[in-house]
Structure formats: structure tokens, C-alpha cells
Design brief:
Radius of gyration: 25 Å
Number of domains: 3
Strand order of the largest sheet: 2-1-3-4-5-11
CATH class of the largest domain: Alpha Beta
CATH superfamily of the largest domain: Response regulator
Number of helices: 13
CATH topology of the largest domain: Rossmann fold
Order of helices and strands: HHHHEHEHEHEEHEHEHEHEHEHEE
Oligomer: single chain
Helix content: 40-55%
CATH architecture of the largest domain: 3-Layer(aba) Sandwich
């Protein structure tokens, strides 16, 4: 395998000059740089990224921890984050924790021990104390879209106003004339509420309008299409007078649409259904899903910029940053209630 020294010998320059050409640094003349690049292409030299990381004291890699690549949101987020990282000369390592806190901790230990230069943590199943311990060791960590608690963790974070997302959903259904509304929300296998803020924002806005949801109008399950189907099937079978269902995630909403079809209820003629996030599948459904968009691409790009800023500036201060507010995307799955 060709080495850096082989390139330098053939080009008649030092290894430092070859390294500067590869990294685009230093003051190498245009003719020399062109000759070095031609030799690199001719002999098939590939830089040893591990050696470079050791020499420079950093890895050109960022780590992204996600809870489930089966959820289309995470691949969409990862794609946008990877593109943003690549534009900045970094690779993105995606770590799938499978919604398991112990797997998440194992990844945190590995990527924070030199495998990556910084960590984007957005796996909702990660334990707060594990994240804080890694950040306390001086590892650049940015927490993205944390929603399990209102308490701010002592690290850089990028927040989405999910409370407003829930409020927008409630306002939309109320404006259409719905008063018999059901809620499908997500919980972990251990029974912890997942979508806290959107859940609370929705209920608070209904309460302000004088609409209360009894326990019989709320159902929980896993944050998947299957979970949404099971939850909505139970909900609609028990409270069959509902004219609308708000699901706290698009996957749950798609499952709710399937449950309505299984019960012979048409969407939106008999039942309006809406979600949150605006994954690509939402627009591809028939009818297309009304949802509250959080701006996935913008959130991903902002999270990469924030992490790189923390890496480059070495800031010890932990700050919270917010993304632009969520936006209602009205499509075909919601309509006024049937007469």
C-alpha cells in the first residue's frame, strides 16, 4: 500500500508538503500542489485517517446517537446531519442504541474515548447521568431534542419547542370544530412518557378552550406505526364518539389512520387524524397526513454547527439554543367533524 513517503519521494518534496496539500493547508505553490495531487491519484495513495487523528490530537469524526433507525425520522435527520458534517470536513458516525440505555452508555464510552471528536446525543432512552458524566470529562456533547423533562441538563443543547407543536395541533382541531378528541401518545417499555412537551401543550390548549380529555380518551403505546395502530384501535373501540385523534408523532398518527380503516371509519370524513414531525412518509400517505413540522433539516444542520463551535471554541459554558418554531402543515387527513 502506497505511503505518504512514497508520494513525497516521487514528487521530490517533503512529507510535510504532501500532508499540507492533502489537508489544503500551508503555502504550497500551485505547480507543486498539482504535481503532488497527480502522483497521489497515479499511485492510489489514501491518507491514514487514524494516524492523522493521532498526530493532530483529534478524530475527523462526529458521533450521532439515535434510538431507532426503524423510525424514518432518524435516517432523515442523519442524512441532513451527515451532509452538514461533510461540508465541514468531518465524517458522521451513526450509533444505533436500539432504545437500550446500556447500549447507549457503551457507545458513549467508546466514541468519547477518541473514536470521535464530539457527540450529538438524541437518543431519548439515554440516561441523563450518563450524558452528564461524559460532558464532565471534557468531551464536547450537544443534546438534541431532549423532551423527557423540563429540567435543563448541564451541557450544550438544541431544543425544539414541542410545547408549541402540541398547541398548534390543538388549535387546528378546535378551529375545525372538533370537541370530541382523542390523544395517542408514546411511552417506553418501562412506562415513561416520551413526548412530554407536545402532550402537555396539546392538553393545556384544549383546557383553555374548555375541552377536557378524560382518561378514556387517551391511549399510550410504543412510538411506532404498530404502536399507533394498537393504541388507536383500543381508543376508538372504547370511545367511538371521537371525531378527531391527535398523535404525538407521525408514526403513531399513521398507525391511527390504519386503525380507523380497520374499524371502517374514513379519514377525514368520519375521523380527523394528525401528528407531529413531518417525516417524508407523512406527505406520501393517502390521504396525506396533517402534521406539525419541526424543520428536521434545519435542526440537523444547526446541531452540527453547534457541536463544531463547541469543539473549536472549547467553551466550558453550557448554553441552550432553540430552533425556529414549529409550523402547522395542513393536508388531507383533517376536516371539520361529520354532522
Amino acid at each position: 500500500m502506497p505511503t505518504l513517503s512514497d508520494v513525497a519521494q516521487r514528487a521530490g518534496v517533503t512529507t510535510a508538503t504532501v500532508s499540507n496539500v492533502i489537508r489544503g493547508k500551508g503555502s504550497v505553490g500551485p505547480a507543486t500542489a498539482e504535481r503532488v495531487r497527480a502522483i497521489i491519484a497515479d499511485i492510489g495513495y489514501r491518507p491514514n485517517l487514524t494516524a492523522r487523528a493521532l498526530a493532530e490530537g483529534r478524530a475527523p469524526t462526529l458521533a450521532l446517537l439515535v434510538s431507532s433507525i426503524a423510525n424514518p425520522f432518524y435516517p432523515e435527520f442523519a442524512r441532513a446531519a451527515e451532509q452538514a458534517a461533510r461540508r465541514e470536513g468531518h465524517f458522521l458516525l451513526v450509533c444505533h442504541t436500539e432504545t437500550d440505555a446500556d447500549i447507549g452508555l457503551a457507545y458513549l464510552d467508546r466514541v468519547s474515548s477518541g473514536l470521535s471528536e464530539g457527540v450529538l446525543a438524541m437518543a431519548g432512552n439515554l440516561r441523563p447521568q450518563d450524558l452528564v458524566a461524559v460532558a464532565d470529562r471534557g468531551v464536547p456533547v450537544v443534546l438534541v431534542m431532549w423532551e423527557q423533562t423540563r429540567e435543563a441538563l448541564p451541557m450544550h443543547s438544541l431544543t425544539v419547542d414541542f410545547h408549541t407543536a402540541g398547541r398548534l395541533a390543538a388549535e387546528h382541531l378546535l378551529a375545525l370544530g372538533h370537541r370530541s378528541i382523542g390523544l395517542v401518545s408514546a411511552k417506553t417499555a418501562e412506562g415513561c412518557l416520551v413526548h412530554v412537551q407536545r402532550h402537555c401543550g396539546f392538553l393545556a390548549t384544549l383546557a383553555e378552550a374548555g375541552v377536557s380529555l378524560p382518561d378514556t380518551s387517551i391511549e399510550y403505546d410504543r412510538d411506532t406505526i404498530g404502536g399507533g395502530f394498537r393504541a388507536a384501535l383500543d381508543l376508538l373501540s372504547r370511545a367511538n364518539g371521537l371525531t378527531a385523534v391527535f398523535a404525538t408523532n407521525d408514526l403513531l398518527a399513521i398507525g391511527a389512520m390504519q386503525a380507523a380503516a380497520a374499524l371502517g371509519r374514513r379519514v377525514p370524513q368520519d375521523l380527523s387524524v394528525m401528528g407531529v414531525t413531518d417525516i417524508e412518509l407523512a406527505a406520501q400517505m393517502r390521504p396525506a397526513l396533517t402534521t406539525v413540522a419541526i424543520g428536521t433539516v434545519a435542526v440537523a444542520e444547526s446541531s452540527i454547527r453547534l457541536l463544531l463551535d463547541k469543539i473549536r471554541l472549547g467553551s466550558v459554558h453550557n448554553e441552550q439554543y432553540s430552533t425556529p418554531p414549529p409550523v402547522l402543515i395542513r393536508r388531507g387527513s383533517t376536516a371539520p367533524p361529520p354532522r
